[in-house]
Amino acid sequence: MSEHGPHLSRRAVLALGAATVFSNGALSAAPQRLKLGEFDITVLSDGHLTVPTRFLARNASEAEIASAIGVGTATVNPPCNVTLVRTLTETILIDVGSGPHYMPGAGKLAENMEAAGIDRHSISKVVFSHAHPDHLWGLLDDFDDTPMFPNASYVISTAELNFWLARDAISRLPEDRQNFAAGSICVTIGRLNLPL
Q: Do 97 and 108 meet the contact criterion of CB atoms below 8 Å apart?
């Protein structure tokens, strides 16, 4: 243990994240809170997706899928969770959810933040893990096309940003994900002209 709290390996943090995302309570709108050293972490629900099973298990055989989730399961409803991290100096949101128009079961982040007493104006930084629609379409306020988190700075990896800004981004995506390009970071961030 260091003076800043217990040391956690990358593997331990990833395992904790996976356990949080796929826990039985993951579809609950109630925020899940935990403390990790000096960080206060809140996992907020953005609802859930409804996607074809094959979409989540591209490299698995039909037998492996049936063994893992059951025979005849054509769709799954994975939870969409967004992580809020409070440090001593910042309030960081990791991804922003899908917004209310992506899928009927998703787009619940704004209402769940409000129910948890979290003011969207208090977010100082938004970190995009990647630029799929269920991670960034929640960036815009539906009523006036302004950023949902107007006081935040925005962070995304250079590799991710360059992928979506490339002219051939659509052709580099699998066919069943080519529609993601319409909601990619270049469209959303470009529309708002946000500094990254």
A: yes
pLDDT digit string, tens, across residues 11-57 = 444 444 444 444 434 445 788 999 999 999 999 999 998 888 777 67
- Residue-wise pLDDT for 84-111, tens only, equals 999 999 999 999 998 888 889 999 999 9
Classify the C-alpha dihedral 102-97-142-176 as positive or negative: negative
Domain boundaries, the chain: 10-49+79-192
Q: Which residues pair with 91 in a beta bridge?
A: 86
Which has the closest alpha carbon to 156: 139, 143, 171? 139
pTM of the model: 0.75
C-alpha–C-alpha distance, residues 131 and 133, integer Å? 6
Residue 34 parent element (H or E): strand 32-36
Domain 10-49+79-192 falls under CATH 3.40.50.2020: no
Residue 174's alpha-carbon distances to 178, 179, 181, in angstroms, are 6, 10, 11
Sign of CA dihedral 32, 136, 99, 133: negative
Nearest to 150 by CA among 126, 176, 184, 186: 126
**Would you say 98 and 107 are in contact if contact means Cβ atoms under 8 Å apart?**
yes
